[in-house]
Amino acid sequence: MVLNLMTEEISKSQNEIELSTPVQYLKSVGPARAKIFSELGVETVGDLLEYFPRDWNFLPEPIKINQMQPNKEAALVGMVESIDYQSFRRQPLFEALISDDTGICRIIWFHGGYLRNQLEPGQIVFAYGKVTIYKHQLQLTNPKFIVLDEEHSKSPEDLSGGIYPAAKELSNRQIKRIIKPVIEKIDELVYEFFDRGFLKKNILISRQDAFKWIHQPPDEKRLSQAKRRLKHDELFLMQLGLALRRYKVQHFSSATPCIYSAEIDSRIRKRFPFLLTEDQDSSIAEIVKDMGKTEPMNRLLQGDVGSGKTVVALYAALLAIANKMQAAIMAPTEILAGQHFLSIERYLKNSQVKRTLITGGLTGQKRTALLEEIKKGEINIVVGTVALLQSDIEFQHLGLVVIDEQHKFGVHQRAELRKQATPHCLVMTATPIPRTLAMTAFGDLDVSIIRHSPPGRSNIVTRRVEQKDRQKAYDFIRERLRAKKQAFFVYPRITAIEQNGDIKAATDEWINLSKNVFPEFKVELLHGQMPSEKKQEIMSEFRKGKIDALVSTVVVEVGVDIPNATIMVIEGADRFGLAQLHQLRGRIGRSEAKSYCFLFAETENETANSRLEVMTRCNDGFEIAEHDLRLRGPGEMFSTRQHGLPDLKIANIIDDFDLLVLARKNSFEMVTQDPMLIKQEHKNIRRALLHKFGDTLGLADIA
Ligand code: ADP
Ligand code: MG
Prior knowledge:
Layout: H1 2-15, H2 31-39, H3 45-49, E1 55-57, E2 73-86, E3 93-100, E4 103-110, E5 124-134, E6 137-148, E7 161-163, H4 172-184, H5 186-189, H6 196-201, H7 207-215, H8 220-252, H9 262-269, H10 278-291, E8 298-303, H11 309-322, E9 326-331, H12 334-347, E10 355-357, H13 364-376, E11 381-385, H14 387-390, E12 398-404, H15 411-420, E13 424-429, H16 435-440, E14 446-450, E15 460-465, H17 470-482, E16 486-490, H18 506-517, E17 523-526, H19 532-543, E18 549-552, E19 565-570, H20 578-585, E20 595-600, H21 606-617, H22 621-637, H23 657-673, H24 683-693
Parallel strand pairs: 4-6, 8-13, 8-14, 9-11, 9-12, 10-11, 12-13, 15-20, 16-18, 16-19, 17-18, 19-20
Antiparallel strand pairs: 1-7, 2-3, 2-5, 3-4, 5-6
Helix pairs in contact: 7-8, 8-23, 8-24, 9-11, 10-11, 21-22
């Protein structure tokens, strides 16, 4: 009696499943299985529908025994007539004869002893595999099979269809059984997003069919249609979130527009001892236009190392200052902040513009006094690290924020900054970002690109050096150092962890280089764990040419600008990624003197070899970024989560680039038409968007 009641209870809730129903209330799922599902990230029916197979099997249509053809795949349905196990043969063999209304067929499985407990005469089986000839007879050899057994309701479907990501205590078959009744209700569960015209124009099938076929594809064609639709929707929702966020920034927060005049322009340009390049000019034109609006600028400035971004940023800062506002420039490390400050000092010598550098070392009264000046608007440019974001620093009127190397900060921090005020925002990156990433992680930014570096740069000669030629390389470097050039030696780590001696570390090699290899030169050590004053001091000595060679870890990676340094040795180069190698190399080749980069590898492996090969052949950051993408693959390079974006379940921003472009276009169009998604026909999309990406994209206020 009690049992009956319970089944009734379950079947009642079965009838009323919704996307938000916990999987626990599905047939054959109880608390135990619900727990396993939960570990797979599946809490609700909606999650289950998005628990997509990772692969699919397609079974051929069964044929009759008399239609079999040699050397082809065939699927048969027949009754087991007899079985036999020949264990004494050199290759033990399990044999079954099956029949249908057209004939009898022999099936053999080598090493098939385990089948003795599975097959017995009288059963109906579905078998598919390769047709071979044995003693002039056609037979199936080692086919896959399934017993079609009414009692256990097995069917060929158990062999075909989706293969779900492995789950320890939940077999593929169990998952399929659990999903099946949900799929049967798909038309009630899943809502369409778009009208027929849209679907037709974009060659998309319905959402209901897409969910049905991704789990239970009748054939390959419909599977790929299902994938296309689901990928489109996933990318569409992500892009829609970005489009909305952008819309919000543009329309609900306002910035002070900066007035621009020919006079301001020429006054700013006088600060630079050179003509700006064409690319610098066009980036500036875009920035000037942005900053002239009441919508805050939200622009990404991309350019290879040394391409002249800092100059562009300073132009923007001076434009803000000409409009009686302040500018903040932030770098990811103190060294870089210090360096930005120095180059700004160089350009602004004898100018009225008041600038200051805020470092972690600044404390007490001095700091308080400085903050007071900033608050009163007496200081025009504040340079510092990201700490500027979190600190108690208040501006009188912050008109522009420049963030250097922003990809290290992530999207959230950028949002953080916007809370303070709504200044115009310029983000600079020296890592060329392939188009795909620019559209996703930075999908709500406008992009300016500096493609060509200023004139007067020599090309860098890059060579991979074998260990046996180490001395030759040192001799060559010695000659250069004698000619008063400077060198970087970069190591993957500070101290040796492994004891096998193969892996070089900065601290040990510094001793070796300064004592044994270059005793006649001043060789200094620099690494991230040194106190910041010490680091600044060494950098400043190196900049002044008082140090000949700098042994360091990747602390010199970004931004360091010392034109007289024309040699770079990278040890353990196989341990660095392409982007990082290119960044490092960008420290040299900053003057007309020829520069040299020597790469030493510690191990031989194929991917490392191809990376180093790309380095010796190619100097263009954008080209290198493309190679990087190809060598590393999307997974490693594009953890969307790392960039503060939701992870994608089915789409892949590299492989599905075309769909990404389409989805981006469609979503941006939708926001233009219906910025708050309040139209009735957008109800389902709005709901799905908030459910899926509301948290990660911070869309709460759209709700
Ligand atoms: P980035 O910030 O892109 O790494 P920088 O702005 O620091 O590049 O510029 C690198 C070097 O090139 C600096 O020494 C700078 O003075 C110089 N430079 C920048 N723009 C020009 C230009 N238009 N002509 C000549 N030299 C330039
Ligand atoms: Mg720079």
